[in-house]
Sequence to fold (249 residues):
Amino acid sequence: MQESNSLMQLLGSLLGPLLVILVVLAILGLFGWILWNARRKQQAREVLLSSLGFTRVQPSPEFSQRIDLLYRRNSSQRLKFTALFEKRSSQGDTYVFDLIETSGDDNTTIANGSVAVISADLNLPRVHVSGRMAFEGKVGSWMAGAAEKVIGWAAAHMGMERLNLDDMPEITERLMVIAADPFAARDFLTQERLGHLLWLADANRLSEIDCGGDCFIVKRAASQVRTSGTESDLRSLLDDARRAYTALS
Fold:
């Protein structure tokens, strides 16, 4: 009887450490799977981009300067490319890139599989055009309004302001435009031109465009994170970049 009790006590004393070991192994296994899956997706993207004529490159000072123009908020902000692919053509150069901010304690993703186009045929004002989120009901409208206020606040810190498009009801319902120079933006972004960008508000591929000089960047909105980076979405985003080039050039 005493031997049986001693055995039970021994098993009880081992149970706690054993559970801790199993939990740690489970966590390590989960992190390992996440890293393996991320690496697998990266390799698949490289294969796809290679088949489409893209080459992996290091960022040139000229390219970095254009990205700084569109994304840098202040001189202390540190940006770092974690991947950059380039495809050159007579019409202009197309890039697919990942970008993070390393200024804080943790890295923040700025762009993941975004597409940049640089062309001498472009002469763009500094503007941000995004599809407006459509939510049903009062709560949904409040959420959309709150998100747009945050975007407006961030834009104000970059010296930009929201463009009043009330004279274009169909446009203002679906697009939000923020500009560094509202007058230059209104001259360039005619109703016809904005009409060719209404796909930015497509619920299945809600997107945004940042423009400036001879460069623009197309990326999916944060709400599309589940599909962003997949092969089908990358192909779709490249098609959308060509569509944006036609509208903006």
